[in-house]
Task: structure prediction
Amino acid sequence: MTKGSPSAILNTSLPARFRQIRLELAREPGHPEGASQIAYVIVAPLDENDHIDAETWRSHREACRVARQRPQQADSLGHLVHRPGGSWAFQYDADAAIPDETGYHFGDERFVQGEYVSIREEGDMHTFRVVSVSRL
Result:
């Protein structure tokens, strides 16, 4: 995979396991109520236990996308990547100028509404709540 502008993907060409997952910042110091405008939207395949499906990811890497949303900023676009050793990360396109961000134990996490996941952003760990999981 190269860092560049993503090409268009037709939802109808993807396996039924693909979902759109929205994560929003959970409560933390500075955000006692959380922050819905600090979010990620991920397009990825989930298995029957709601974990990221690594096998389907391998076959459809280009379709596994992420949009990083922040207030008063354009969305930063990138891809969900599976690193050696099994960790998952967000690798942003070259024009985003954002370092890769790592999902903490994403391989073990269930992506269902109401669950929490952690993401390492620029060296700091932040907790996000899964607010929606929908079919494409």
In short: The CA atoms of residues 65 and 79 lie 4 Å apart. Residues 16-135 form one domain. The two ends are 23 Å apart (CA to CA). The chain has a mean pLDDT of 90.
